[in-house]
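Researcher: I'd like a structural prediction for the single chain below. Treat it as a standalone chain; there are no partners to consider.
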Amino acid sequence: MYKNKFTPIILPIIIIVIWYLITSVLHLVTSYTLPSPIDVCISAWDIIQSGELFRDSFDTLFKVFAGMAIASIVAIPLGRIICKKINKNSKGMNILFDCILVLAFWAVSLIPFVGGLVTLIINLLAFGIITYAIFFSKKLNETTTVEVKKDDSEK
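Model: Treating it as a single chain, here is the predicted structure.
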């Protein structure tokens, strides 16, 4: 597939080198905004040694598989019931279940759109508020100065 066996790792190495240059050598970005690859490796090693990574990974996998099990326990019998109802020859039930299924699929298909839209609105509002807060706090600090004078009568 590749002429050279090292071809797939060239791009990640280039990205890490550029990342190192930007964060550690040129200091174009603060370490709070984008930590250097060395800091990331040290932090990764620390959470591996402390066992936090494995504990959190286990918790996450447990939640995923528990959710899958609960969804399967609910969805498989429900699907069998719906399939039996649809296969019956009564036209009234078919129309009712068709309407229910169409509405259910329509509602489920809107979840990613609505969720993405809500997330976008929240992010825009949050970043907008944060940007205005930073801008006005800088302007406020530039325009107003407060001097504290010590009162000689208090001695």
